[in-house]
Amino acid sequence: DTAVSQTPKYLVTQMGNDKSIKCEQNLGHDTMYWYKQDSKKFLKIMFSYNNKELIINETVPNRFSPKSPDKAHLNLHINSLELGDSAVYFCASSQEVGGGGDEQFFGPGTRLTVL
Amino acid sequence: GNSVTQMEGPVTLSEEAFLTINCTYTATGYPSLFWYVQYPGEGLQLLLKATKADDKGSNKGFEATYRKETTSFHLEKGSVQVSDSAVYFCALSSYNNNDMRFGAGTRLTVKP
Which residues in chain B land under pLDDT 50? Predict the structure, then answer.
């Protein structure tokens, strides 16, 4: 069974469009995250949710809006896509909120290409 | 704030060579330390971790020891294989932070 799954795996779209990426975890974890990985492999935290509540909201344009319908799902909606949004987006989950020595479990990533 | 610094890559080695990837950290309190590995086209996977000073994490022939005196968590492997080619990330998490901090990643290429 896949622990953390994301759809779609690849997303190619035009500038200005609105798109969503879905994430689901079946680990029973309380906390979920979205990361952005740029072309140089640098990982940057975007959001963190704990039990459906927003915990971390890094300096991310408000075109990005996370939605957590329940603690097993954290979706990412992006409005008015820009060229600079092209990256790989990873969803992750952990039992605790960030700390406490808990590892994070990562999804396979969604490669977003904005043309 | 908490941060992680790891050696810049890329690192290219021949099969069976010895590997060291340096990682140092800055943190308040007592963080837990991790090494994650990302194979091409995949997400990150936990490779090993250590939760307190002097702990040694190990997995698949890789080792790293939590050194509080030098604030380091260097990754080592005695004999690398072509299949170890990947990007390696050092990371830390602590009770006083709500997130995990990752280093910039080090790309390792092992040639036959």
Answer: none
- Residue with tokens 């808990």, as numbered in its chain: A102
Please tell me the distance from the alpha carbon of residue A89 to that of residue A75, in angstroms, as a whole number.
Answer: 11
* Chain B nearest CA to A49, separation (Å): 10
**pLDDT score recorded for residue B98:** 60
| Beta carbons of A55 and B98 less than 8 Å apart | yes
Q: How far is CA B19 from CA A10, A57, B110, in A?
A: 33, 37, 10
Question: Is the Cβ–Cβ distance between B84 and B17 less than 8 Å?
Answer: no
- Residues B3, B91: contact at Cβ < 8 Å? no
Which positions in chain B touch A40 (Cβ < 8 Å)? 104-105
Asked if B45 is an interface residue toward chain A (Cβ–Cβ < 8 A), one would say yes
Alpha carbon of B60 to those of A3, A56, A93, B86: distances in Å?
A: 21, 33, 24, 14
Mean pLDDT to the nearest integer, A54-69: 86
Facing residues of B57 across strands? B64
Does any CB of chain B come closer than 8 Å to the CB of residue A40?
A: yes
pLDDT for the residue A88: 95
pLDDT digits (tens, 9 = 90+) for A5-34: 999 999 999 999 999 999 999 999 988 999
- How far B87 CA lies from chain A's nearest CA (Å)? 8
- Residue B101 tokens read as 């901090």
Cβ <8 Å between B43 and A56: no
Which candidate from A42, A98, A104 shows the least CB-CB separation from B97?
A98
